[in-house]
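Standup notes
- DV: blocked on the single-chain target, sequence here:
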Amino acid sequence: MFDAAIRKKLRDFSLDLAIRAGPGEVVVLMGENGAGKSSVLNIISGLASPDKGSIRLNSTVLFDSGTNVDVPTENRRIGYVLQNSAVFPHLSVRENIAFGLRARHKSPVFIKEHVGRWLKVMHIEDLGDVKAGNLSGGQKQRVALARALVIEPALLMLDEPFTALDAENIQLVKELTRTFVTEMAIPCLIVTHRMSDSRDVGDRVCVICQGKKDWEGKPENTPAHMCRCGDV
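- DV (later): unblocked, structure below
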């Protein structure tokens, strides 16, 4: 179970938001540019800190301004796929996927076994030794997703994961995301600007407007005026 009540001020911008997501549930965050969607993910991951509020993942408190708790990013058990995949271009596909495991000081045998499994699961076994900078957009996204999932996260977060992909890879990444979130029984937060994405993979939609939650509900119940956030 993921639970966050966040308040963050960025100069003249204020973000005030409560999010809850259960095991296997995909919550889609939507809103216009500058609404605060990516800021939410950065705060939850620990890349940025709110002025006040709390963030809990299962029974673990990741951040609490009242008790001065602020767990380091690397200890938060969060798989985070940044916008535009954010693979390490100078590293091989195998090294990219292994990155989080090495940071957690896993043994070479453990790393080899788990990286091999995810290469197979993502259908990129033949790309293991290829530099990630030479991959197509769809291949990079699968590498980034494998890197996020190989650490067996308690929460998966994806920032605009479908933007740079062609139709075939969009469908593939959506299917992979939905499958692994369900099988691993973890909550997932996805930032997207397209209503079609929320209908395809989302269980619930949260619309952010000017730093505050404007609407929340099922994708199929999203009011027509919310379509300003993206395509229909």
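- Follow-up: The domain at 2-229 is CATH 3.40.50.300 (Rossmann fold).
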